[in-house]
Amino acid sequence: MRLSINAVIAIFSLYFQSVNAQSEQIITEDFKPSAVNQPERIFPQVNSQRRVRASISAPNASKVQLDIGGVKYDMRKDDKGVWTGESNPQDEGFHYYQLNIDGASVPDPGSLYFYGAGRLGSGIEIPSSDQDFFALKNVPHGLVSENIYFSKLTNSFRRCFVYTPEDYNENTKMRYPVLYLQHGSFEDETGWSAQGKANLILDNLIASKKAVPMIIVMDNGYAYKAQDGNSSDKNPKESVFEDVLITEVIPMIDAKFRTIPKRENRAIAGLSMGANQTMRIMMNHLDTFAYYGGFSGTANYPNSDAIDASTFLNGKYKDGNALNKQIKLFWLGLGTKEPAPFPKSIGAFRTMLEQQGIKYDYYESPETAHEWLTWRRCLHQFASKLFK
Fold first, then answer.
1. 67 and 190 in a common domain
2. Strand, coil or helix: what is 12?
3. What is the pLDDT of residue 213?
4. C-alpha of 11 from chain center
5. Same domain, 370 and 258
6. Considering the domain boundaries, does residue 366 fall inside one?
7. pLDDT, position 291
8. Of 57, 76, 161, 238, which has the highest C-beta tally within 10 A?
9. Residue numbers in the chain where pLDDT is lower than 50
10. What is the C-alpha to C-alpha distance for residues 335 and 362, in angstroms, rounded to an integer?
11. Rounded to an integer, what distance in angstroms lies between the CA atom of residue 153 and that of residue 241?
12. 150: which strand partners?
């Protein structure tokens, strides 16, 4: 029987698909402990294929899974009751994950814990090809301090973390510009220094003279108006973060630290939810900030419809010429693998900027999604352009 050329091609295509599928299941046994494991813990681990291997002792469990990247992977139990399992290859960078034991999702006791996804939980670092820019190096290091303050607007104690550059305590006559940097949804004020490596990114940039020494303030974007005793839990909470930042945090920072308290020396930026928040704050307070950075987010999220500049944010983008004179840097960043609706939503916003003749810088993080490596790269690019 003679086969047609198309039939031969189809057979070879099926063969190579089968070979590739089998090769994808072959696990390279060069696993190493994650860089963010608890001391002396050898699991979780990562191999050269960027697979994650987790292990936990649960002799009485009937089913254990590794839950990472939105996929649950069944783990195997040995005769000692230890469960071990691997994921498919993951993207480079930092990822939240958890273990699922008989239906209960719990942190992995082998990893350090990070606040994300609305809880303290496990995280793992998949080594990235460009990790040098946020690596811990033998360079002068700044200080990240915890600053507790009482907010009258929320009637509660709050805190922000403040990065000061390495010479801040020695060079006491020097004053510094300030970047106000916000986290994303279901994260908090610890995110940028723990998962984001903001202090190390700035240490390395400043040491290589690629960034101006600056102070970074990282506050909690969840701030709600204090409710009286008659308020019901059913009433929606009123966010007052903008007022907290403008009327409480900035005056406190200017009084407590050696800042340059002028708009030309203040920047504001955020990721995802924080990008949305800070964009609104920036446009409402152009007398306070001169630089803006939006990482994986804009104020029109989640809408991707065309934006009418005459009505969007009360017409704040209507006069492009005036904004170009006021804003020294308008910067946007996005990962090339971001999920919907971020690419189209940010795309609609960029189109509006271009129609209004508003100057902006745009950066795409290669092969990253809505995750911390995208935002580390964004901060690295953005910070190098500030206050120059």
1. no
2. helix
3. 98
4. 45
5. yes
6. yes
7. 98
8. 161
9. 1-3, 5-23
10. 11
11. 9
12. 157
3-state DSSP call for residue 160?
A: strand
Q: Which tokens hold the place of 188?
A: 């908090």
Torsion angles phi and psi, residue 268, rounded to 5: -140, 140
Does residue 123 sit in the same domain as residue 142?
no
DSSP 164-180: E-TTTTT-TT--B-EEE
Range 241-247 contact pairs with CB under 8 angstroms and sequence separation of 24 or more: 241/277, 242/277, 242/280, 242/281, 242/284, 243/153, 244/151, 244/153, 244/154, 244/158, 244/219, 245/180, 245/219, 245/281, 246/281, 246/285, 246/288, 247/153
88 and 184 in a single domain? The answer is no
The pLDDT value recorded for residue 197 is 98
Q: Residue 186: which residues within 8 A CB-CB, separation 6 or more?
A: 116, 117, 118
Domain coverage including residue 75:
32-127
Query: What is the residue whose two structure tokens read 């969007």?
Result: 312
Provide the pLDDT for residue 227: 83
Residue with tokens 């697979």: 51
Q: What does the block give as tokens for 353?
A: 């900027």
Q: Given this model, what pLDDT does residue 22 score?
A: 40
